[in-house]
Amino acid sequence: MHEPLYGRHNQAMSSLRHEIACGAAQLIAEEGFDYQSAKRKAYERMTGGLGGRIAASDLPSNQEIEEAVRDHLALFADESQRAHCEAMRRAALQLMQRLSAYQPVLMGALANGTATAFSVIHLGCRAESAKELAIDFLNNGIAVEATELANPVGQGMVEGLLLGWQGHPVVITTLARGGLPRRVVNLSTRELTQQLNNGGLA
Question: How far apart are CA 137 and CA 170, in angstroms?
């Protein structure tokens, strides 16, 4: 029996999604692309720029890209990169300890195991406003820049801060009081301490 045309189409799209995910992971890990830009660039490379428009549903999801980044790092990350990421996590821990009054959590690539040389320290802090955090930093001689960031737990934007800490770029998102949804991977100060002590983070 001949395979239905839609079956062959689905297989082809599945294969293309996988290739795009792998290509995007390489761009993220080696060139610092963000997920959306990496998807588009990988698609252009896979099709030679002649693939035409593609529906967003035909591109790999961010979760698929995340898994591909983990696979890429497991295969290609060298010791210097691993050491750099561990140093960033240890710097993050020290900053979290300093910000204990704001119940900080580590978010983003350093929390979910996809950190690269281009990653930043991304913390979520529970505060009434970014101004509250900014005053704390400024009173201790640490320069900060106010910004707006995508809300990690819903729609729209939230207040945030940009700063440097021990030579590493830091992004702080202000969070409402209460817990984060399970879909938002994050580590508390205690959890990060345990994982660093156990060597549990790649």
Answer: 13
Strand 168-175, strand 121-126: pairing: parallel
Banded pLDDT at 151 (limits 50, 70, 90) = confident
pTM beyond 0.90: no
- Domain count of the chain? 2
For residue 185, the 8-state DSSP code is -
Please tell me whether residues 88 and 185 are part of one structural domain.
yes
User: CB neighbours of 75 closer than 8 A, spacing ≥ 6?
Assistant: none
Q: Domain of 64?
A: 5-76
Model confidence over 12-49: pLDDT tens digits? 557 888 999 999 999 999 999 999 999 999 988 887 76
- Whether 55 and 121 share a structural domain: no
Which of 51, 76, 101 is at the close of a domain? 76
Q: How far apart are CA 60 and CA 136, in angstroms?
A: 41
The predicted-structure confidence for 168-197, as pLDDT tens digits, reads as follows 999 999 987 665 655 667 899 999 999 999
